[in-house]
Amino acid sequence: ELPVGVFQVKNDPKVGIYLNYMQEKFLFPYKIYGTEQSFINRVIKTYKNTKKNLGALLNGVKGTGKSVTAEIIANELELPVIVISEHYENIVDFLVGIHQDVVIFIDEYEKVYKDYTKEGNMLSLMDGVLNSANRRVFIFTTNDTHINPNMLQRPGRIRYFKTFGNLEPAAIMELVDDLLEHKELRPEVIKFISELELITIDIVKSIVEEVNIHHEAPEVFSGVFNIKKEQT
Fold first, then answer.
1. DSSP string computed for 50-96
2. What is the DSSP secondary structure assignment for residue 118, as one 8-state letter?
3. What is the pLDDT of residues 35-53, one digit of tens each?
4. How high is the pLDDT of residue 118?
5. Which pTM was predicted?
6. C-alpha 22 chain-centroid distance
7. In sequence order, what DSSP letters do the residues of 162-195 get, joined into one string?
8. Is the pLDDT confidence value at 232 over 90?
9. How confident is the model over 91-123, as pLDDT tens digits?
10. Can you tell me the distance from the alpha carbon of 174 to that of 194, in angstroms, rounded to the nearest whole number?
11. How many whole angstroms separate alpha carbon 221 and alpha carbon 207?
12. Average pLDDT, integer, range 4-26
């Protein structure tokens, strides 16, 4: 029986598909901003109060926090986590052979299953067609521009579909307060960030880093920095 931990699916031509132990749980060697704790709590509570498979699809552009949220959910479920980063022909048969409750985690699902014709058995596994006495929690993340139509309007397959957008104002200010070295520029930095078309953790960090390096307000380098302001 698999212990609680994170395992990555690997494939060897000689032995076939196997699990490679990675670590006890997902680790975050940095401060987490904008934690979606209420959503995380909802998923955990639903898991504890239901008996069937459970699916969550987290959607959004890079840097909006979807992968971190997915990993926190996986940690809090306290189950073995099976990470799939590549499609293998017999992957579903392999998963069916794991006779215990597990989390199946696919980060950037649209890259692993960019060819929808290859995901049929995976969808059947999610639907519970391939019966098992054990439960599986499916946690997938997708890019904002690639939402798999096979996942939508199917709560029996994907119960939760959450889109991650701009960072919340409280998280923006906390991030700026933690990282900004030139505190006198805080008002200009906050104002500049609030006017952006897209506000992610990565973007805010990059802007603050630029301010720290050059000791100048963001408006000074806005003409050459790779960001866009909202159209007014």
1. --S-EEEEEE--TTSSHHHHHHHHHHHHTS-EEE--S--TTHHHHHH
2. G
3. 799 999 999 999 999 999 9
4. 72
5. 0.88
6. 18
7. EE--SPPHHHHHHHHHHH-S-GGGHHHHHHHHHT
8. no
9. 999 999 999 999 999 999 988 888 766 777 788
10. 14
11. 10
12. 96
How many Å apart are CA 25 and CA 6, to the nearest integer? 6
Residues near 41 by beta carbon (within 8 Å), at least 6 away in sequence: none
What sign has the CA pseudo-torsion 110, 67, 121, 2?
positive
Which tokens sit at 1?
């029986």
Q: Calculate the alpha carbon distances from 205 to 111, 153, 165, 209 in Å.
A: 26, 36, 16, 6
Amino acid 198 reads: L
**What whole-number distance in Å separates Cα of residue 70 and Cα of residue 139?**
7
Residues with Cβ < 8 Å from 153, sequence gap 6 or more?
Answer: none
> Amino acid identity, residue 14?
K
Measured CA to CA in angstroms, residue 109 lies from 49, 86, 93, 181, 222 at distances of: 27, 9, 19, 38, 34
Confidence tier at 80 by pLDDT (50, 70, 90): very high
Cα–Cα distances in Å, from 148 out to 109, 140, 211? Answer: 9, 11, 39
pLDDT at 217 over 80: yes
Tell me if residue 142 falls in helix, strand or coil. strand
Residue 157 has pLDDT above 90, yes or no: no
Closest CA to 109 of 64, 56, 72: 56
Residue 145 pLDDT > 70: no
